[in-house]
Amino acid sequence: MSIPTQNISKTPLESLIEAEKKAIQLFSEIEKRKLIKTGKSEEELSQEIYELANEMFGTTRHWHTRIVRAGINTLLPYYENPPLLRLQEDDILFLDLGPIFQEWEADLGRTYVIGNNPKKLKLKNDVENIWDECRNWYLEQVEKGNEITGAELYQKATEMANAAGWEFGGEIAGHIVGQFPHEKLEQEDKTLYIHPENHSSMLSKDKDGNIRNFILEIHLVDRELGIGGFYEQLLTNSYQ
After folding, report:
1. Where are the domains of the chain?
2. Long-range contacts of 55-61 (CB under 8 A, 24+ apart)
3. pLDDT per residue as tens digits for the range 75-119
4. How far apart are CA 217 and CA 235, in angstroms?
5. Fewer CB atoms < 10 Å away: N or C end of the chain?
6. Which CATH class is domain 12-234?
7. How do residues 133-152 score in pLDDT, each as one tens digit?
8. What are the Cα distances from residue 81, in Å, to 70, 159, 207, 213?
């Protein structure tokens, strides 16, 4: 007699973490295959990433535009649409990808440096470290029972950027993420963003009574040098 299998449904956070793990695998394969090469255009790299996601996971949908920004374009936030550039020697670039895996959204951003420019390498390292520090600070506050608002978290990210010698480059420091399609990201509804005008708790619930899951994104820029770095990943953790 066969034993019936138990249907164990995942929580939204578990599903998001699973989707994120696949996105991390995608980034690892981008690096393994050395897709980031001098002379390639931002659009060419974006198309190769699209094809790779399909090859690895059968993924053909991305919940937001695939962002590949190099050189001076790394100064610009998500909503800008600058002229396309080609990757140069001694360049800096970042990828911001939003693939959908089994109806769950991933949102991952990473910075890469071509060459050994010390300032650009410092920017790459700082944006990763500040993301870690900001996330850890937030989780520590939650563990202490402090309900941090989106405005407070944005302010903390800005302070950390400035302390490291950078300008914070984004008007937001993150946003909600979920099952596709998640709550529509209306720019006027600041409660869906880590934004200086979001004075609601990060633990506030959506219209269905569920705690929202957020992406934390750090965008550092040096306008004088014309360079920027970007890093994003899930903020939420097992405190839910």
Report:
1. 12-234
2. 56/22, 56/25, 56/26, 56/29, 57/22, 57/26, 57/99, 57/101, 59/99, 59/100, 59/101, 61/99, 61/100, 61/180
3. 998 888 899 999 999 999 999 998 888 888 889 999 999 999 999
4. 9
5. N
6. alpha beta
7. 999 999 999 999 999 999 99
8. 13, 28, 32, 27
